[in-house]
Write a structure and sequence with these properties.
Elements lengths: L2 H14 L3 E6 L2 E6 L28 E4 L4 E4 L15 E2 L4 E7 L2 E6 L4 E6 L6 E2 L4 E7 L1
Antiparallel strand pairs: 1-2, 3-10, 4-6, 4-9, 5-8, 6-7, 8-10
């Protein structure tokens, strides 16, 4: 399908207020989805934080959250040991896990130094954007 036709479909979705449309032409079939618009009356206020700041968790801990939706893996390969263990010290830039999204393996790195207090996600399970993966005690 060419990009002009795809743009027309997206404009149709917007114009009609639809969130999903499926079009079939011969053997070709395409489904286009978009998130429904949220009513501003019910929107949550934005969090006030300094640029690049990591939100503090309970009792001064620091969470490492999922930056995307995908499948959480603690190991680089199925045969490898976990990238980090509870009690291990991590430094900024250390890979702590992998999230697979659309068949792409995304390395998730620590942004702040800390000692791993807990692992909050299960190996091989789906995670959501913003879900806490690890909790660190800051150093």
């Amino acid at each position: 399908m060419d990009m002009d036709r795809l743009r027309e479909i997206v404009e149709l979705l917007k114009a009609e207020g639809l969130t999903e449309i499926t079009i079939s032409e011969g053997d070709e079939r395409i489904t286009v989805r978009r998130a429904p618009e949220r009513d501003a009356r019910f929107a949550e206020p934005p969090l006030a934080a300094a640029p690049g700041a990591v939100p503090a968790g309970p009792s001064g801990t620091v969470p490492i959250t999922a930056p995307l939706v995908g499948t959480f893996y603690r190991r680089a390969t199925p045969e490898s040991p976990p990238l980090v263990e509870v009690g291990q010290i991590v430094h900024p830039g250390d890979t702590v896990c992998i999230i697979e999204a659309m068949k792409v393996m995304n390395e998730i790195k620590a942004e702040t130094p800390g000692r791993v207090r807990s692992v909050q996600a299960e190996d091989g399970e789906p995670v959501e954007y913003g879900q806490v993966l690890f909790v660190l005690d800051p150093l």
